[in-house]
Specification:
Length: 336
């Protein structure tokens, strides 16, 4: 119960908008995180507390900019409003990026605003912030990104950049709580233990068949697999990424309550279930796995045989709810 209180305080907007000095605020922030079982920052790490929507009211920014930032927040937390247009999953961006993209250890989104443009191994060229956002639309949301430079894209980038307020560009220190840091991989992962762990700890919200729960077309509990979930090209299909996400964030409100072994076994189980095809699919699952193995699929179960029933994972043409495989925004760039 106490953990839950801290968790709500941290993801919400109440606790940190009071009149504390910057140092006191940071100290309190770190205390709250360590109370929840997260590691304290290392000596040389950059700690940033992103502003809240409450702070936005007080901020000295042009009212029109505030309006656009609010629109970006609205798109980020209720991405389902773009269902059928840009989103073909049952997800909101904030279903994975907890606390509306502010939460450390839940892939906070502001680091992208201060570290991009940069080279990205996943697609082998220099990416802008817009292209990074487009990546999550394409894979995590199984969708089609809004056009570059469109109102929606500008609103989303404004929200990302504003969360980074005060952080230097291209910081030379590593960022505390970036990504979904995974606990150390145990020697052996077990599908059957993962299944049991999932049914005991997760199914109450996400359902035994992974379908989650939708209430009046709104996502109450997002689906961790199946047609409404992230596709085979999403970062979350890497077992290590899912293990990090689960350990740090799930069950909801009880972060860091599972053992490392449980988190990895459950991640292995969840990521051994079917989901929409990888948009980079060449028409052959083994060929696709080989092509994107070194940069990506070596960490996923894609193209591998599931021990429970001998099924080859990802060997299908199912693109979920959308009627195309790959949005045309996914292309390489050479700058020649
Ligand atoms: C299914 C889970 C999931 C959903 C839904 C999702 N993302 Fe992500 N996102 C990830 C993962 C995984 C990463 C990579 C984290 C890492 O580097 O380990 C990521 C990374 C990012 C980053 C880069 C963060 C950094 O540290 O540089 C941004 C920006 C981002 N996502 C934006 C979005 C936006 C915008 C949406 C909605 C359109 C979205 N994401 C939806 C899983 C998700
Ligand atoms: C009390 C309900 C609840 C429980 C229990 C729970 N989750 Fe979640 N889960 C959620 C909610 C709600 C979200 C979206 C988070 C948000 O929007 O802030 C989520 C998000 C997720 C996501 C990212 C989105 C997606 O669907 O892919 C995954 C993966 C996930 N949970 C896995 C798990 C696993 C594994 C467990 C068990 C260890 C678990 N959850 C337990 C409610 C729950």
């Amino acid at each position: 119960m106490i953990r839950r209180f801290f968790f709500i305080a941290l993801t919400g907007t109440v606790l940190f908008s009071s009149a504390l000095s910057a140092d006191e605020k940071t100290e309190k922030y770190i205390d709250t995180l360590t109370e929840l079982g997260y590691p304290a920052p290392k000596e040389n790490q950059l700690v940033h507390i992103p502003p809240t929507m409450e702070d936005l009211k007080e901020a000295e920014l042009h009212p029109e900019l505030k309006r656009v930032i609010r629109r970006g927040y609205d798109l980020f937390t209720n991405t389902q409003q773009l269902r059928g247009e840009n989103v073909f999953s049952e997800m909101n961006c904030s279903n994975c990026h907890a606390g509306a993209g502010r939460m450390p250890f839940s892939a906070p989104i502001w680091p992208a605003a201060v570290t991009l443009p940069d080279f990205r191994g996943k697609n082998g060229h220099v990416n802008s912030l817009e292209e990074r956002i487009a990546g999550c639309f394409t894979y995590s949301m199984n969708g089609k990104p809004p056009d570059y430079g469109s109102d929606k894209m500008v609103a989303l980038t404004a929200y990302h950049s504003w969360l980074a307020t005060g952080v230097e560009m291209y910081p030379d220190k590593p960022i505390y709580g970036r990504g979904f840091p995974a606990p150390e991989r145990p020697e052996e992962l077990s599908y059957s233990r993962g299944k049991q762990g999932y049914n005991e700890n997760c199914a109450v919200c996400h359902a035994e068949d992974g379908a989650g729960l939708q209430v009046r077309n709104q996502t109450a509990f997002p689906p961790p697999w199946g047609d409404g979930s992230y596709n085979w090209g999403a970062g979350m299909v890497r077992v290590s990424t899912a293990a990090g996400f689960i350990k740090n964030n799930m069950p909801l409100g009880q972060p860091n309550s599972l053992s490392d072994q449980e988190a990895w076994d459950i991640a292995y189980y969840v990521n051994s279930q079917e989901r929409p095809q990888d948009p980079r699919y060449t028409g052959d699952v083994e060929e696709t796995r080989e092509k994107y193995g070194p940069t990506f699929h070596k960490h996923s179960r894609y193209g591998q045989i599931r021990e429970a029933d001998g099924k080859r994972l990802g060997d299908h043409e199912n693109t979920g709810e959308k009627d195309f495989l790959k949005p045309d925004t996914v292309r390489s760039r050479t700058f020649e």
